[in-house]
Automatic annotation (TrEMBL):
It comes from Pseudomonas koreensis. Residues 1-27 form the signal peptide. The lineage of its organism: Bacteria, Pseudomonadati, Pseudomonadota, Gammaproteobacteria, Pseudomonadales. Keywords: Signal. This is Secreted protein.
Length: 111
């Protein structure tokens, strides 16, 4: 057996590779923040924990009965502004499996 690929060295190499992959996965967590601009408008900003933006990512406003009240996608600046619905709602930032953030209306900062 090649001494460079002894089981102990191979295990160490695999461990380092796995640690690198998990670190990069952890550095890409979804983030979304919504703030009321005034009594009628809400602005949400989405992105990832590595500092990258999320243009084009789905951001829907959904009623408590699961109907989509405002379908949307983040703009080039990774934001979406929408009129506050009259019904109870939450915001769903959906960048794909494992990259979802829900924000309840009660957690949206007042102006």
């Amino acid at each position: 057996m090649n001494p460079a690929l002894r089981p102990s060295r191979l295990s160490a190499v695999l461990l380092v590779l796995c640690a690198g992959f998990s670190a990069s996965a952890l550095a890409h967590n979804p983030m979304c923040e919504c703030k009321a601009i005034d009594a009628e408008q809400i602005k949400c900003t989405g992105g990832f924990s590595d500092g990258s933006g999320a243009p084009g990512v789905t951001l829907d406003v959904i009623g408590y009965d699961e109907t989509i009240l405002v379908p949307g996608k983040l703009g080039a600046d990774s934001t979406l502004t929408f009129k506050k619905p009259g019904a109870e709602f939450y915001v769903l930032f959906d960048a794909g499996p494992g990259h979802v953030v829900e924000i309840d209306q009660a957690d949206i900062e007042a102006p």
